[in-house]
Amino acid sequence: MISSFSVLLLYNSLVQSEDIQENIIHDEPVYKVHTNDDNQLEEANERIKLLESKLIELESRLPRTNAFPEIKFRNYKDKKRILVTGGAGFVGSHLVDTLMMDGHQVFVVDNYFTGSKRNIEQWIGHENFEMVHHDIVNPLYMELDEIYHLASPASPPHYMYNPVKTIKTNTVGTVNMLGLAKRTKAKILIASTSEVYGDPEVHPQPESYWGNVNPIGPRACYDEGKRVAETLAYAYNKQSGVEVRVARIFNTYGPRMHANDGRVVSNFVIQALENKPITIYGSGEQTRSFQYVSDLVQGLVTLMASDYTLPVNIGNPEERSIKTFASLIRDMVGSASEIVHKPEVEDDPQRRRPDISTAKKELGWQPKVPIEKGLAKTIEYFRRELSRTDNSEKHNGDAFEYVL
Ligand code: NAD
Ligand code: UDP
Ligand code: UDP
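^ thats the input. predicted complex w/ nicotinamide-adenine-dinucleotide below
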């Protein structure tokens, strides 16, 4: 058996010549074996033909290094040096796509805790793009104009997996990014969350609401971590004049969500696609409001460009119960899954819906993508992911379940 590596080596030597590339599609093998033994000759030529067809298949799978999309041209003065921490994650990678298409120099810093190189592989090798494997709990030195600080696990099972690390990332990591912004005079946007409102007693939630967070519950590492991140941002702003933006992001979904991260959209879509039971935690009467990822990215970019420095809710105010959401996904997939109830999750916020009047007034932003359209794209993405056979990161077939 010839290994794929040796096929690749052979491929590399073959593709030196354009003639060969053209000939390779012909029925006759390009290389011929010289021997007088007819049987040996025929066997060897058959083997070469087989190898050549494998090369064609391999070529179609190789990354096409010059196949980048056409990006906006910017000259040296207009081109910003932008850092996206957590840029290999779900939201970060979509933001990277937008910033790259807009012609900026984009640096991604990620420790791959929940992110994946696959999310940004489309830019690897591009002259405007650089990927740095780094944990932001450690200091980072580079020269920048803007920082989108997104690095943090975001789904409850992920941030509960190592609560101390979640706190360090959101506190020590945020100090480092603010220190970096201070030294380079870069503008910094902090990705905060609706979780700063905890299990809210005010509905819908305006930015002026201070929240209802259990400081020692299972969500505290994330909720309190993000609350400190906001506090740090305004302390650096006040004490050192750092230009800060704070986005309070509400539930977001779309392609490149982590298949095993246990969030409701990925779980329900995967369960429906596999005709497995759809698991509702608790009664299903609890509500969420879901925004499509492209709306969020537009909101973040608009906030960064604005002069507004106070926190802004970025979310879609269309609110649904988790029960309704389960049926909607099942119907859209056309699945035979039954809907089952599991024990409710500790400290699960019962209602969540953003008041987005600040974003409308100060940024002229509001979400545009209807849930059916966004879900259709997300379902299509997971359908493709589930049919992958060539990647070790392939989803293992089971939706993640909370173990609390
Ligand atoms: P994600 O888990 O897909 O992405 C987070 C990225 O940060 C990953 O690539 C991960 O590897 C990286 N990371 C984590 N710790 C790090 C560290 N110490 N150093 C370097 N990199 C690290 O999550 P996401 O959904 O893309 O969320 C991005 C940001 O948006 C997070 O800050 C999250 O809190 C916030 N947010 C997301 C949502 C949502 O619904 N997706 C809602 C509210 C807030
Ligand atoms: N820092 C960094 N990159 C920089 C500047 C600072 O990572 O370019 C980190 C560094 O670890 C520092 C922290 O940010 O401790 C806070 O910086 P700040 O200037 O506020 O404080 P100090 O340097 O006095 O600790
Ligand atoms: N949820 C559920 N089944 C699942 C995953 C989540 O019923 O398989 C519920 C969860 O209890 C919560 C809501 O869906 O009420 C949203 O959960 P998610 O983890 O997506 O986000 P968050 O709680 O951070 O808003």
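The chain has two domains: 4-62, 66-389.
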